[in-house]
Design goal:
The complex is a heterodimer of chains A (about 240) and B (about 350). Chain A has about 240 residues and is mainly alpha-helical. In chain A, about 60% of the residues lie in helices and about 0% in strands. Chain A contains 15 helices and no strands. In chain A, helix 5 crosses helix 8. The longest helix of chain A has 19 residues. Chain B folds into 2 domains: about 130 residues, Up-down Bundle (Glutathione S-transferase Yfyf (Class Pi), Chain A, domain 2), CATH 1.20.1050.140; about 170 residues, 3-Layer(aba) Sandwich (Rossmann fold). In chain B, helix 3 crosses helix 15, helix 8 runs parallel beside helix 11 and helix 13 packs across helix 14. The longest helix of chain B has 18 residues. In chain B, about 60% of the residues are buried. Classes of the chains: A mainly alpha (about 240), B alpha/beta (about 350).
């Protein structure tokens, strides 16, 4: 039993996700990610159960742990009450703490997620706001969204929202005092440390790749990781 | 389908839902993409049914999308959720109503974690106090907003102007229901009907006159997958999941889709547009698509609210075929107008999906 396994086992979600997997493959049969990607949650459980640190390190450095969509369909169907999706969450957390995530194309995307969603939480109090869903970056949103995005203020008014307003209501502005509490929670509970970790390991990788790192989503590195797809992730 | 047998199974998955006095926590995605839905929910509860619902101005995101895309640690998320509970406690409420299914799943997961690991709850209480000086009671009752509409479905039906019925034939409208994965896949006993036979939306459809369609991929994820949609390079995953569902439901000729999760209706709506532009493939008759609604919007529709005041114009797949079928009136000239009829332009017509505008 190695250090990496011990660290995984210390995650409260680990014990809830893996209780003697019997390798039946039910999770793989139900998994939407296993259907799309070259991915097999049963193998994840087997690898972790081996308690072999070298194999676990390899897993955390690979694309594989980033294929899961965390729908948790596996939790419903596992006859042993396991949850490979929850195990994946423990693996992803440790991969980011150790810096292994920058070794794979899918893992590197975590910086984009941090700068899009993570930073948005602290700056606005929301995971998502309509103003950040830029139609140019989201062609799939279609022409109605493009029109809506251009007319957010009058439309939100028509639909009963309190767009960027004080007080309660749909899409209200979260006050500075509330944002300050959120920031303190992140500092005290390790949220800010996780953000810093993702930034610092990603910076090393960006430097190694010779890409401009920047501080927002427009940097060369973020644009690269946001769009790169080597087309080797799916079944043959 | 042996309905009697299913009803017996559902009896094992009933849950206690508070009757009144709700502390309402809004959803980031619902507010962003279907802002009218939350407005309708509050309006129906307050104005139509006389319920007490506290619209809290100080709560923030629960961080759920950050947690499930793995950039926010569990301790951080638990403490942010503890802050929401503190706001509920300070406002004098015990019944927590979450608009978001991701949030609802997280609250359920956190309360279960604290139940089994009281030392974790104690640590989170310390974190919260240190960060904010706040303390909290856990909710006496935790419900997703769709649970509440389910509980009140017959009262809503009694006040409704319309039924989910084809006005020409008198036949029920055929409805696909799609439940957000985190509503009950993680903790089946916390959802009405559990994970295999969730009844929360089916109950509304039946109470409002419609017919529920059972189809092979009924329980399949819409494909959000958090990071699988958030990062452009991964979106094929998201689109493929929705396509699988559309292909599976198509032979049953649904008139509409109803959802209880904030993200699912957006994906099921937008991916129909994307598939049509990519492959020329449309679902539904005459390139209409299959309109997708939130349960709040459906409640608003049958109550007879103006479709453009509850936000049906911000759907990419047009609602008009369904409105016409039921006989709900609307003024097409006002569809893309501002609050007082001002001209704010209009969207471009898609290449394949039918477009309704004057």
């Amino acid at each position: 039993m190695g250090e990496l396994y011990n660290r995984l086992a210390a995650d409260i979600r680990f014990g809830e996700s893996l209780k003697a997997c019997i390798n039946c493959g039910t999770c793989t049969a139900i998994c939407p990610a296993a259907e799309f990607y070259d991915y097999d949650p049963r193998v994840i459980a087997t690898t972790v159960q081996s308690q072999d640190d070298e194999k676990i390190r390899e897993l955390m450095s690979s694309d594989v742990i980033w294929y899961c969509g965390e729908c948790m369909s596996c939790k419903t169907r596992c006859p042993r009450g396991n949850a490979p999706g929850l195990l994946i969450m423990a693996l992803r957390t440790l991969s980011q703490q150790m810096g292994y995530f920058t070794e794979s194309e899918k893992g590197r995307q975590q910086l984009a997620v941090k700068r899009i969603i993570g930073d948005q939480i602290l700056s606005s109090g929301y995971c998502v706001r309509p103003d950040i869903v830029d139609p140019a970056l989201h062609p799939e949103q279609g022409p109605v969204w493009e029109w809506e995005h251009k007319n957010l203020a009058p439309l939100m008014d028509k639909l009963g929202a309190n767009y960027n307003g004080e007080g309660a209501g749909v899409l209200r502005k979260v006050s500075d005092a509330d944002l300050e509490e959120l920031k303190k929670i992140f500092e005290i509970t390790g949220g800010q440390a996780m953000y810093d970790n993702i930034e610092s390991f990603s910076k090393l990788k960006a430097d190694g790749m010779g890409l401009e790192f920047g501080t927002d989503t427009t940097s060369e590195y973020v644009q690269h990781i946001y769009t790169a797809n080597n087309q080797k992730h799916n079944h043959e | 389908m042996k309905l009697e047998g299913k009803r017996l199974i559902w009896q094992d998955y009933q849950k206690e839902i508070a009757d009144d006095h709700y502390f309402y926590a809004r959803s980031c995605i619902r507010q962003t993409f279907f802002p009218g839905a939350e407005s309708v929910f509050v309006k129906i509860l307050k104005d139509e049914l006389g319920k007490d619902i506290h619209d809290e101005q100080h709560h923030t995101s629960c961080t759920g999308i950050g947690y499930h895309s793995d950039v926010v640690p569990f301790d951080t998320t638990m403490t942010v959720v503890a802050r929401q509970f503190a706001l509920m406690t300070e406002a004098g409420y015990e019944n927590y109503a979450a608009s978001c299914v991701t949030s609802f799943g997280l609250y359920t997961e956190i309360l279960d974690t604290w139940h089994h690991f009281p030392e974790t709850e104690a640590r989170i209480r310390e974190f919260l106090f240190k960060a904010t000086g706040r303390e909290f009671n856990k909710p006496q009752n935790l419900a997703h907003a769709s649970d509440i509409v389910y509980k009140l479905r017959h009262q809503i039906a009694a006040k409704a102007k319309y039924k989910l019925v084809d006005k020409k034939t008198g036949e029920p409208i055929k409805v696909v229901e799609h439940i957000g994965c985190h509503y009950s896949k993680m903790f089946p006993h916390k959802g009405i009907g559990g994970a295999e036979y969730p009844y929360v939306l089916s109950g509304m459809i039946e109470a409002w006159g419609g017919e529920v369609i059972d189809y092979p991929e009924r329980r399949h994820c819409c494909g959000f997958g958090f990071r699988q949609y958030l990062v452009q390079a991964n979106r094929g995953f998201s689109l493929s999941c929705s396509k699988k569902k559309f292909d599976s439901m198509e032979p049953y000729e649904p008139d509409m889709i109803i959802t209880n999760c904030p993200g699912c209706p957006m994906f099921l709506d937008r991916w129909q547009y994307t598939l049509s532009e990519m492959e020329g493939k449309t679902y539904g008759k005459g390139n209409q698509g299959i309109p997708v609604f939130t349960y709040e919007e459906v409640a608003g529709m049958i109550m007879g609210y103006d479709p453009w005041e509850i936000g049906l114009q911000v759907h990419q797949v047009p609602a008009e075929p369904l409105l016409d079928k039921i006989g709900i009136p609307y003024d097409v000239s006002q569809k893309f107008k501002g609050k007082n009829g001002e001209d704010i332009g209009m969207p471009q017509s898609p290449s394949y999906l039918k477009f309704y505008a004057e």
